[in-house]
């Protein structure tokens, strides 16, 4: 669950979606998305799989590679912004 949570957080940030945007797309609360990103075992597995599917996350890894994937996910997540905010307004760049 820790690996899947990291992948969910990474994919959401890479798409520059807020937690609220992902929660709306998945039809769950923002608290559920936060719990899924933390790898909480209290989130229903169907909900976690639905969030992962929305983000296009591959759910199956070859046996024995989980530890390596976990480390790579942590490294990739560290490179992304820790927070994503909604855009304030569209920029009018038509001169």
Descriptive terms for the model:
95 residues; mainly alpha; 5 helices
Describe the SSE topology:
Layout: H1 2-14, H2 19-26, H3 30-38, H4 45-55, H5 66-79
Task: Provide a short characterization of the protein structure.
The chain has about 100 residues and is an all-alpha fold. About 60% of the residues lie in helices and about 0% in strands. It is globular.
Describe what this molecule looks like in 3D.
The chain has about 100 residues and is an all-alpha fold. The model has no long low-confidence stretch (mean pLDDT about 85).
Mean pLDDT: 85
Tell the overall outline: globular
Structural class: mainly alpha
Oligomer: single chain
Number of strands: 0
- Termini gap: 50 Å
Which blocks of ≥5 consecutive residues have pLDDT under 50? none
- Element order: H for helix, E for strand: HHHHH
Rg of Cα set: 15 Å
Our estimate of the beta-strand percent is under 5%
- Largest sheet report: none
Task: Output the number of helix runs.
Answer: 5
Percent helix among the residues? 55-70%
């Amino acid at each position: 669950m820790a690996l899947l949570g990291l992948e969910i957080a990474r994919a959401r940030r890479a798409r520059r979606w807020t937690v609220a945007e992902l929660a709306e797309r998945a039809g769950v609360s923002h608290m559920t998305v936060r719990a899924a990103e933390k790898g909480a075992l209290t989130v229903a597995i169907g909900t976690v799989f639905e969030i992962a599917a929305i983000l296009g996350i591959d759910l199956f890894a070859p046996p024995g590679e989980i530890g390596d994937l976990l480390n790579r996910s942590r490294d990739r997540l560290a490179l992304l912004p820790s927070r994503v905010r909604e855009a304030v307004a569209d920029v009018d760049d038509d001169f």
